[in-house]
């Protein structure tokens, strides 16, 4: 039943995607009350617009500050801010696309971009971008990432705002006490995880992500250890390559051996809070939690470094999440909505948001601001991307079903792997079958 439902959803997505690929950039929009494919209008450029924050709660304070700045600069526009938790935003968009109630502007990460654009819900923004004050001022790699993730060769469906590299955070005080070297290699990582664990004292070497968002972290660990540098080998995925299977077996074996049992259900907020408040040696997350660690631990007790290097001496990471802002086609006030997007990605606002999040700004002027050098993990992550030491495995964000395959369809199975109820081989074979099917459908639709 699950497979047939997934195929039906993909078939519907494919039909919608075919329509999207045939579209040309238009200037129609919506009032925030329509669903996918509804047409709105440019509007007066004044009045109220609705903005959905795709990481509500975590980034609410900084968005409220930026919105206040925007409203001061644009007194004829009011922004209704709606915070939505990252774990819920995909389903919220899908529900609104089918039933109505889409916002004018929404946070749309690369992982969900293709799925939303395939349902004809997002307005192409390449023309607005080319004519705006942002033209030539956004990181070219991030712009290219959202273009590819959107699934269209000709259209751009979001304006990138940040990149959030994967980081290995470790407790320098605990490492020093145990006489351990910095975990810059996977061998050093596993050695430290074991040596720092004393479960009787509730001390653990690592916290593993078993709840929402677990697949992305597992992929990073797999490819980082295996050294495989491409996600596809022809038209087949490398996810279940024997080297990746071996890497996942070793990684999943950490659960309950050197990690807390609570990790089975922990999403990033619980995992980060657990690391900040306890005596756990290492945490894999992204730049977004850096400021949380500073507040909880101070800069003296931890470091955030790029992911470990493998046996070849090279660092391999899965593609870095690029976040962005989308203009919804159903908006009836696109002119005002675009003004907000343009403001949010401008130098001052983009710098302010990314400093708060500890992420890499999309605005190249913001990327030169002083705080970048002061936020060590951000500085190191940016350097690792530019010094030739890192190979990025590009994830297939362009697949309309990617977000579902990498989350809802397989997160429960990953928990079974952690519990020893499913083998790493069976898990990765299942993921690979779904990916290969999705890729074949995508290729057929594109031809």
From TrEMBL:
Residues 1-27 form the signal peptide. PANTHER family: ARABINOSE-BINDING PROTEIN-RELATED, POLYGALACTURONAN_RHAMNOGALACTURONAN-BINDING PROTEIN YTCQ. Pfam families: SBP_bac_1. This is Sugar ABC transporter substrate-binding protein. Keywords: Cell membrane, Lipoprotein, Membrane, Palmitate, Signal. The keyword Cell membrane applies. InterPro entries: Bact_solute-bd_prot1, SBP. It comes from Streptomyces cinnabarinus.
